Structure formats: structure tokens, C-alpha cells
Amino acid sequence: MSIIDTFDSESEEILKPHFISPKAYGFPEIAIATYKRHIIELASEIFGSSTVSTVKAGYTLPIDSLSYKGRDFAIYFQPPGASISAAVLEELISKGGKKFVFFGACGSLSSDIPAGSIVIPTAAYRDEGVSYHYMPAGDYVKIPTSGRLAEIFSELGIPHITGRTWTTDAIFRETRNNMELRKSEGCCVVEMECASVVSVGLFRGVEIYQFLYVEDNLDTETWDPRTMDKIPRSAEERYLRAALEIALRI
Question: What is the pTM of this model?
């Protein structure tokens, strides 16, 4: 049996999420995850968010809550990476979360896509390990919420593009040949988590919405960091407010 043929639909997990994170009374059904820690600090500064819970996916991670336009949402910093994203998501589903908005940075596979562009992934190439434990082997996982998410961005008047993403957990092995191959299949960006969180959502029956914003560019002779680690506060606030508006509409 191939190592990617590890999806087991016949037996149960030995360690279940609720053993660590049991259902929490009053936990918000909609949660927002950001891959930038200081966006959580920004949310606290603007909206007065505060810690309401924790998860224990390898280490204690605080989960905050904030009120926006009369609605309460969970919001948290998600450490980057496929496996920890999936583990935290599992615990939050166990606590009572039903819909999740993820947003974070990605790298462009086309120099025609400028830094700061919003990308809505429609499918994710499964170049990681987590998704093979949540669904049968295959190259891509389709993202069923991408159409509705594109509608929401149009309603908000926010320019965006749609396309496939390349999810990899080997950021220092994004080789030229693999990049060109993914690009030829319609991938326009690369990131580390989308295939994993979407596969968990499909398996557990919860909704995953994810948008990405472009930072660095791989489509050059040498890697171009562009805006990596230099995003202005005004842009981060726009991404945060977009995530909150999405949370209101799903």
C-alpha cells in the first residue's frame, strides 16, 4: 500500500478531539483564523477582543472572542503549517465551531499577480500529508465554499481573483520544476494549509472559507520577497475587516 493511501474509513480514531477539547457551552459557531499573530493584537486594539478559551494542539493556544456589528465571533492566531492547522481546527469543531474563515499570506506563481492581491482558492493541490488521512488519495481537493466566498467579495466591492492553490508543507523544496508543473495545472499561488483544513472540514461536516493575500513571488529567476513581512497596518486592517464581513454573511 502506498503511503498516501492512509485514509481509513472503517475504524475510529484512538485519540478523539473531544478527549482534549470537550464541547464548550456558548462557544461561537463561527471562528476566524489568521496566520499573522499581530492581526490578533490589531483585533484586540480595534474591537476589544479577549481570550475566552484555549486549545492544546501541541501547546496551549488562546482563542479570543470579539463582537462585530452585534455578532460574536471567535478569532485566533493560527500557527502556520498543515498539521497544526488541522489539529486546532479539530479541537474548535469539538468545542462547537461550525463555520470557519481562514485568511493568510501566499506566494504568487505568476509575476502578473501583484502583491496584495486577494485570491480565492477553488481547489488545492494536496502536496502535504494531513489530507490523506481525511479523504481518499487524489491530486486536488475541491473547495465547495469558493463560489459563495467570491460572491461575498463581489458584494463587498473587493477586487479578487479565483484559481487553484498549491498546498505544500515543504516550503524550502518548492523547486522550479514543481512550480512550473503546478502552474501548468492552473495553480496561481502556493501556501501551506488550504488542502488540509478543507479536507478536515469536509470530513467533519463543517464549512471552511479561505482567502489568501499575495506576498512573495516565485515566478522570477530568483525568489522575490516583495511585501513579505512589510505589509502596512492599513492592509492588515482591510484583511481583518474583510474576514469579519465574511463571517457576518456565511
Answer: 0.96
